[in-house]
Amino acid sequence: MQNTGNQYRLQKISEIQKQLEAERQKRTQLGEKYKKGVKAIDAIDYILASSIVGLSILGLGLLATIIAAPAVITTETITMAAGMLFILSRQVNRKLKHIATKHEKKSVFLVKTCYKKSQRPNFENTK
Asked: Taking the complete model, does pTM exceed 0.85, yes or no?
C-alpha cells in the first residue's frame, strides 16, 4: 500500500516539474520579447535625439535669415514634438526594462525551484 502512495507522490512531483519547466520557458520567452522592445526603443531614442539636434540647428540657421520665420515656427514645433516623444520613449523604455528584469528573475527562480524538486528523496527504499 505504501509503495502506491510513493509512486503517486513521485508522479505528482514529475507533474509539478513539468509545470515549472513550462512556466520557466514562458518567462524566458517573455523576457526576450521585452528585451527586443527595449532595443527597438533605444534605436528610436537615438533617432529622436539626433533629429532634435538637427532640427534645432536648422531652426537657428533659419532664424538667422529673418525671411524664413514661418519655416522656423514649423521646425521648432516639430522639434518640440520630437522632444516630447523622446521623453515618452524614455519612460516606456524604463518600464520595459523593469518588466524584462522581472521575468528574468522569475525564470531564474523557477530554474532553482525545478532543480530542488529534482533532488527528491528516494521513497522506494523506505519501509
From this structure: no
